[in-house]
Amino acid sequence: MTSCLFIFSTGDLLSQTLEQTVDGEEFRKLAKDMYENLAQPSSPPSSPLPPSSPPSSTSSPPLFRLPDNFTFDFSRTFNMVAFGMLGTSYLHVWWNRLEPLSKVLYPVARFGQTGHNILKVLTDQCIGAVGFMAIFFGVNGAAAGLSNNPSPDQPDPLSNKIERVVLGMTIQISTYLLPQMVNYHWRFWPFFHFWNFSRNTLHERAIWQNIANVFWSALLSAIAEDNKRDQLAAEAEKMSNIKE
């Protein structure tokens, strides 16, 4: 659990740093290109300069420059750590059940080692991964429900807090679970876990999953920030056109 605490807290602080860098557009574009290439593995990776372009002689701006009002949202980091501990515990239990079950359902003698691993990954992604992501959105929804007190000046009984937590979890899971699984999760994790299940022991898999999750979360944060900036720029341009 100590490694889980370190990995998830470090990962969220890294994500927040990337989100708040004001000169990180080049990095975010690179991250977006990397993500899009996951969906098109045959496409060559994009390059910031054409092959024939000579290197620029002028000094480039720093890749990262933090804004003056840069702050960390430690409540968000706490939520990520809580999710990490719950999710990692869930993975340990699930994978300890999946391992003997897959030996019965997909015997190596019949399917071969590669076929056995593929079927085990498919089972994991259709059952275990859905539960793992449900925990993530459940934790986020619970935190949002607790903080969303419509009457902060009035007494807040426990029954109201429980109601807001349940409502927040329900909204988060029902709204985001399936789109996230289809648009993000299944683009990367089935391939990672094929390697994870093939090369690592049962007790090593969770820590490798958490390490990969740090970089995957940072990548998605960079993409989300890039999309948000594009949307704000488009809205600003639209408003300027209306004024004209």
TrEMBL record:
One of its GO terms (cellular component) is membrane. Residues 38-60 are annotated as: Disordered. Coiled coil: none annotated. Residues 42-54 have a biased composition (Pro residues). It is found in: Membrane. Keywords: Membrane, Transmembrane, Transmembrane helix. It is a multi-pass membrane protein. The keyword Membrane applies. Belongs to the peroxisomal membrane protein PXMP2/4 family. This is Uncharacterized protein. It comes from Triparma verrucosa.
